[in-house]
Amino acid sequence: MDEPPYYYLLTTYLSYLILIVFGHVRDFFGKKFHKRDYRHLQANDGYAALNSDFDNFYIRRLKMRINDCFARPITGVPGRYITLIDRTSDDHNLHFKFTGTTTETLNMSSYNYLGFAQSEGPCADAVEDTVKRYGLTIASSRGDVGTSDLHVEVEQLIARFIGKESAMVFSMGFGTNASAFPALIGKGCLVISDELNHASIRFGARLSGAMIEMFKHNDIKDLERVLRSVISQGQPRTHRPWKRILLAVEGLYSMEGTMCNLPGIVSLKKKYKFHLFVDEAHSIGALGPKGKGVCDYFGINPSEVDILMGTLTKSFGANGGYIAGDKAIIDKLRLTNAGSIYGEAPAPAVLTQIAASLRIISGEFVPGQGEERLQRLAFNSRYLRLGLKRLGFIVYGHDDSPIIPVLLYNPAKMPAFSHEMLKRKISVVVVGYPATPLVSSRARFCVSAAHTKDDLDRLLDACDKVGDVLQIKFSSGIAGGAEPLPEGVTAEMVKEWKRTEKGGMQGDVIFQPPRWKLEDVLKKGVQDVKVPLR
Q1: What is the pTM of this model?
Q2: Which of 120, 147, 245, 266 has the most beta carbons within 10 angstroms of its beta carbon?
Q3: Can you tell me the distance from the alpha carbon of 23 to that of 92, in angstroms, rounded to the nearest whole number?
Q4: DSSP H helical segments within 34-148, as ranges?
């Protein structure tokens, strides 16, 4: 993984320190001279303040400075382009006023991986027919009278598509994980979780009452170390064997763009006999030659994974989530899962959108379109990632990931990058602490099959100019951006040549920082993405 110069990390820490110090100074004087503005932070008439913690301080004194970069209101369909509702603020982002105008921008921020976020086309037509027949809501939970023929049909489609015996759908992706873990495990069980797992997995694991152990992100050696330790020691105090051990990982990590090392995990599963839960919220539909997720990508039989979870918001242009597994597991979840018993059933229009998009991906409906979308997404992901690396940016993630994080580091670079891109009519997401580590603020591009090469070229052009202005081209070349290897030459041969011929100290490999001209990036990108990226 590439890293910026040490001075940049140092100045990033210093920036946060200055913001925190100035924030406390402003609070000190504000509480003295502007007491009315701080009433909600102090006890009043015997009532304790509800929000006088560090989270509140962070929001007021750090996030508020760049609040105009977040939660921008939109109108219309979030497809290839997205229309922003313009707003201004006269009180440093405390309140916003709408100007009455809109701005159409290139959408690099939505999870519309396969481009199914559409208001026209076969999916939209099918949804319209469903609304006329079923209405807008089932008006009941699944446990009462909320299970329609559409629910049964969609669950069968998902199970067949995933490669599992059975499946069940939920009306919310976060709620799928939050309610599934307490129904699967409890006291006396152990959850082993990747340190970068989504908040929904952490929330569900805590609700379950099971013990939780963490391992370093995507580190198979550290995972095996944890497994050996917890299996040999057993439960705390009693040292009895665990009732169940459940390993929870994500197929594709939404902030890092990395894939789980599924082959390595399955190998450990056979050795240590734990149960495996894979969250495919971002990978289902977006990875693999048939769009079936990480199992499809790595060529692993879905039977090797006990429970496959996914959301229907991203690749399918709908909303909600699903759990797929053996029939016995799903039957138990139907009876014990709070989300199914108390939560509202997915709406008919949403179910039809899921069914139509699944049939298009699998080729049952509009033959050829699903395969074309998958191929476009794969090309767009590799093309944009390679282009950004060659321009000199530090880019995280797997080569085939449609999530492409570009590291900004310094907190001031987040609003600067967002505003500069918006000036060029491009919508991007910027992410900082606590969603990322303190010094790893980033911009995150979400690629879609709806994007064209011209769209990506326009984005690369904008990034090239903004990167020069903000001085965020730190790549050392260790993470890629080089020319493809000549035919017959392997990466191992190049490494050995660099060690022996270039005089690397103590066997170190010398890398050339990539700083390509934009014209060369655009000229060679199409051909170079067809071979393994360097």
Answers
A1: 0.91
A2: 245
A3: 14
A4: 54-61, 122-134
